[in-house]
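Many groups now describe folds with learned vocabularies. In that spirit, our science desk offers one protein's residues alongside their backbone shape tokens.
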Amino acid sequence: MRNRHPFHCSVVLWAILVGLGTTNARAQTPVAILPDVVYGHKDGLAMTYDVFTPEESNGAAIAFMVSGGWYSRWNPPEKAKGFFEPYLKEGYTVFAVRHGSSPRYGIAEAVADVRRAIRFIHLHAEDYKIDAHRLGVLGMSAGGHLSLMLATTGDDGVLNAEDPVERAPSRVTAVAAMVPPSDLRVAVWEAEESLPAYKNFPALNMSVEEAAKYSPVLFVTEDDAPALVISGTLDDLVPPRHGHWIEEAYKDGGLECKLLLLEANHGLQGKQPEAIQAVIEWFEEKLKAK
């Protein structure tokens, strides 16, 4: 039953995007698909993403975090194409980034994986015909958490690293995070504020001290990427206080964070079109050519 829970079920996450972007197949944007690009290895396993390049590219890109409850699942890219239609038709190249999945891998590994994916995209931006300075990140729920971690912990690369990927930046230009947890210290199993439902998520079986290392609210600094955060006022899994917390941290640092509160639950049911339109407008503003 665990994989039916809305917080970490990638199937539900994909279904939400389908609802936002479903169109007649003949009306969909012509897209070239580059599947299963290997951006790294660990434990003998390949870490991959899929690349969706619209025929009429605007030169900007969006890295979508395929993650719910820090579970990350593979889906046939031909089927996933329709999920990204709202972005593809605007000309964005889309990267569907997968990370080492719970329960085998935890949040630390997921953060490290998606950070490496961003470095790999930077390193190969010319191959994808994108401007690495116009790179956005999008995610929902755990994917939103990973998006905020990328926004708040980006760096310029390790100059003397042996691995050329590690020498590339992990910075992104802008982030859109839907219903993201922003402070894991209240979510891990041992936290007093932790909700019973969180026991469904093995990734949250860590100490409060460890959770602090992966709580975006604690890493906001002056060089962070601007963030759009969308929270549901009826969300009883990741309450909207998480959105308020990250907004406050950004504003305390003099940075730009737009918090959009929608009268919706964790899946944003009934408000998906409004959410996706807000994301498109956000990226249109933040990723436009200079």
In short: Confidence is low (pLDDT under 50) at residues 1-26. The longest strand covers residues 31-42. The first helix runs from residue 10 to 21. The chain has one domain: 2-286.
